[in-house]
Each structure stands twice: as C-alpha cells, then as structure tokens.
Amino acid sequence: MEDSRFEAGLAVRKAVLGKEHVEKSLASADPLSMELQKLVTEYCWGSVWTRPGLERKTRSMLNLAMLCALNRPHELKLHLRGALTNGCSKEEIVEVILQAAIYCGVPAAIDAMRTAKEVFSEA
C-alpha cells in the first residue's frame, strides 16, 4: 500500500508542482531529509490530494489561504505556481488573498500579494 500511495502521490505532486521541481527536491535530499520527502509524497500528495472530494483547483485555493495564514512565503510561491497550473486565474488568487486578509491579517495578505505579483510576473 505504501509504495502505491507514494507512486500516486508522486504523480500528483509532479502534475501540480512540476516534474523538474519534484525531481530536484528528491535528488537533493540526503538520507535524513529523504524521510520527509517520502512522508510528504505519501501523506500529503498520495493520501489527500488524490481524494475525489475536491478538485485540484479548490485544493490549491485552500492551500494558498492556509499558507498565507501561516506566513510561509517559500511554500506559498510554490503553491501559487501550482494554483495557476490547476486552473486558478490571477483574479481568483487575488480574491483568496483578500479573503485571507480579513481572517489572517493584513500583514500576511500584503506579503502574500507581494509573492503573488512575483509569481505572476514569472508566469
């Protein structure tokens, strides 16, 4: 079961975040950090992202809001790219950030918008 969950998670992770990013993350992992890579791939991507209850676009918007709340700019940047891949428009992403401003705080939203503008300019 674990191997199939890893493989399913790996496929979704590559589809959302990009094959190059995922392969680079796995290739740069050492024996200690590889355990975290396996956990993330199996648990996050293989157990949750593969569930049929929400579309990938919806999962991306939820991630953006939560990463904004947690003030995790590195992960936010990664998931902004994934959200675009999953069909979120720039306008929808801005709406998520505005919603997060109310519930997570304006400073978090300002940082998130700054990160989003950077990703939008790269896209």
UniProtKB/TrEMBL annotation:
<protein>
    <submittedName>
        <fullName>4-carboxymuconolactone decarboxylase</fullName>
    </submittedName>
</protein>
<dbReference type="InterPro" id="IPR029032">
    <property type="entry name" value="AhpD-like"/>
</dbReference>
<dbReference type="InterPro" id="IPR052512">
    <property type="entry name" value="4CMD/NDH-1_regulator"/>
</dbReference>
<feature type="domain" description="Carboxymuconolactone decarboxylase-like">
    <location>
        <begin position="35"/>
        <end position="118"/>
    </location>
</feature>
<dbReference type="InterPro" id="IPR003779">
    <property type="entry name" value="CMD-like"/>
</dbReference>
<dbReference type="Pfam" id="PF02627">
    <property type="entry name" value="CMD"/>
</dbReference>
<dbReference type="GO" id="GO:0051920">
    <property type="term" value="F:peroxiredoxin activity"/>
</dbReference>
